[in-house]
Design a protein that fits this description.
The complex is a heterodimer of chains A (374) and B (257). Chain A has 374 residues and is of the alpha/beta class. Chain A is built from 13 helices and 14 strands. The longest helix of chain A has 17 residues. Chain B has one domain. Chain B has a two-stranded antiparallel ribbon. The chains are: A alpha/beta (374), B mainly alpha (257). At the A-B interface, helix 2 and helix 3 of A face helix 1 and helix 5 of B.
Amino acid sequence: MSNDVMIYASDLSKTFGSFRALDKINFEVKRGEIVGFLGPNGAGKSTTMRILTCFISPTGGTARVNGHDVFDDSLAVRESLGYLPQRAPLYLEMSVLEYLRFAADLRHLDAQTFRKRARSVVEVCGLAQVLGKEIRHLSHGYRQRVGLAQALIHDPPILVLDEPTSDLDPNEKAEFLDYLKQIGKERTVMLSTHNLAEVEASCARAIIISSGRIVADGPLDEIRAKSGRVRYVVSIQESAGDGAYRGRGPLPKKSEVEDALGKVGGVKKLGELPTDDRAHAFEVVSEQEVDLRPEIFRLVADKGWVMLELHRDAQTLEDVFRSLTIGDERRNRRLGPQPEVEDDEDDEDEESDGDRPGAAGGDAAEVAAKDQRS
Amino acid sequence: MRNILIIARRDLRAQFNSPVAYVVIGGTMLLLGLIIFILPHMSVGGVSVGGFWAIDRASMDQMFVCLPPLLSLLVIPAVTMRSLAAEKGSGTLELLITMPVRDSEVIIGKYLAACGVVVVLLAGTLLYPIAMFWGHWGIGWNLGALDWGPVWAGYLGCLFFSLAAVGVGMMLSSLTENDVVAFFMTTGALFLLYAVGLLVSLFQGSWTAVVEFISFESRFQSFARGMIDTRAIVYFLSVATLCLLVSFRSLESRKWS
């Protein structure tokens, strides 16, 4: 392990009773990186963070923070960390200044260092106006800032923030992400969230976790490209309304359009999109290498239909996230024991370890499309 | 050591920053005053209660009959429910434990703070013997010379009793995330530990010895009479240590659950 690896997790597992919260996850975070830790609720984000901050112990595997093992050397780990748990649980009866002093005392800062550090975190977190106020009287946004300030008070090389923006309004969120950029200049930051826009705004790299497994890990561009699929939206006129129909032959039926689009070479998936009765709209998904637009245009022109719309977009981070993690949602909606098939699919998922989420992701996206239709 | 003091100081301040500590201390003082000075003399289960004026002796025995049950039923459960159960429930414990402190320092710090509140209450009750037996208060009046020996012995007994009872409260507080549950569990447990001594006559044979051994009441008796019983001190301290060990393990168990 090189000196630059600040957080290192190897085969990290955690089971709660019979529930496997984490299943052999592996990742590294290097010095100076801001990493977004993404996943749906219950995927294992907080569990991972709690292991890294020594609140709970892993059932298996090892984790090292700043070179110290979380199990054998937990005090050293906690000294080099600043941690903000979910919803910033602070002592409500203390004033902001008292709280910061308490955090500084436990981290053994002397009075002079405290004054210096306090001045700097108060400035970065924008707390000057509320220093003397009791925390119970502060809004969630301010509480979150106080939580961040206590995590920063000892100038730690590593920050672990668990859903730091979940309780904030859009303005506060934007401000918070600004702080984060300032803070992250010379620090390693690991931040969990299920808000993708935040990751896109503040992180260069993301780790996506689903059902206790890492399904993607890398720079955002790479993750976006990961699905390797492109989506086309095609709308064909269904009725001309009061105007004149400019097509050839009769107006097409939905099944005709569906059949015809399905036969275009390279189409991996076809789904209907909701529209009014003037158009048939379909979503066509293909592999990235082929461009289906000429094919689709040719088809529509040959049939004599009227094309209202054809556009192509690369999948957004959100789509990738959905296709990578939708299995969770499916499991949540299903009662009773899970069929074997599901497990096989999961194993496949594990083998690919995020490098090739295509197979499972495709199925999942299909379900997503069905969901959308219903 | 330093961390223990920092945690203890914070907890003690938190107790006194909320109305709970004041209500509990004030309420206890009031109840104590009512029972000692206003209530007519009566005998409950062979223990004489109240009738301070009727006894016609310069003695504070009455106070030491009432203090332990009041401590057990009201003060200690109210103080210890906040120390771990409430913190677990609100999540503040997570933030505390993820700072560079040992679990044992957290437990001991919180234990000391809870004991601190009880000590403040005990110090407050000194008001009663002082008002009755010391000074003239500008009216040229007091009840005469009090033998302070038994009073100090009684306070010492209360202190050691409280060390054990707070330990029990901490232990039960560490087992739940709900402060109300912690309160009632502690009240129940301390009531049993105390009252079982009053029911000693119901037990037969060797059970009598067992009950007397366990009972906080039997242990406290000698102090109330002015005798400093080292066996009782060792017993109370052992109970406190055992309970703190269990609390420590229980706090640690979060890692494995």
